[in-house]
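hiii so um. not sure if this is the right channel but i have a protein structure encoded as C-alpha cells and i wanna go backwards to a sequence. like what aa goes where. can anyone help
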C-alpha cells in the first residue's frame, strides 16, 4: 500500500461527518463545534488505541508500506456504521430530535469522535513511521 492510502478512511469519515453535521442538523454551527471537540477527543482515544498496534513497515517497492492487519480497524468501522445508523434511525423515528439542541450537540460530538479515533490512530502510525524512517 502507498503511504497516501493510509489516510483514506480518516478523510472519508471526515467528509461524511462534516456533511452530516452541516446538512442533517437544525443547529449546524453548534453541532460543528461539537464535531471539532469530538475530533480532538477521538484523536486522543485513537492515539491511545493504536499505541500497542503493530507499526508500519517499509515495503519492497519505493514509497510502499506494509500495514499489519488487526481486528481493531474492522471493529471500529463496524461500530461507526452501527452508531451512525442508530442515530439516523432515531432521527427518522422521532423527528422532534432534529429540533433538540442537545441532540444536535450529541450528534456532532459522536460524528467527530468516530472520525477522530481514525485520525488519532492513523497519525500515531504515520508519525512513528516517519520518525523511524529518518533514523
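sure thing!! here u go:
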Amino acid at each position: 500500500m502507498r503511504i497516501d492510502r493510509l489516510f483514506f478512511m480518516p478523510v472519508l469519515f471526515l467528509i461524511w461527518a462534516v456533511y452530516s453535521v452541516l446538512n442533517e442538523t437544525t443547529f449546524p454551527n453548534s453541532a460543528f463545534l461539537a464535531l471539532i471537540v469530538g475530533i480532538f477527543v477521538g484523536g486522543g482515544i485513537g492515539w491511545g488505541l493504536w499505541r500497542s498496534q503493530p507499526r508500519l513497515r517499509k515495503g519492497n517497492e519505493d514509497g510502499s508500506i506494509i500495514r499489519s492487519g488487526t481486528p481493531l480497524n474492522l471493529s471500529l468501522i463496524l461500530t461507526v456504521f452501527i452508531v451512525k445508523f442508530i442515530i439516523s434511525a432515531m432521527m427518522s423515528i422521532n423527528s422532534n430530535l432534529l429540533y433538540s439542541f442537545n441532540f444536535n450537540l450529541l450528534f456532532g460530538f459522536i460524528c467527530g469522535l468516530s472520525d477522530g479515533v481514525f485520525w488519532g490512530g492513523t497519525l500515531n502510525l504515520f508519525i512513528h513511521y516517519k520518525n523511524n524512517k529518518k533514523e
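oh and Residues 3-134 form one domain.
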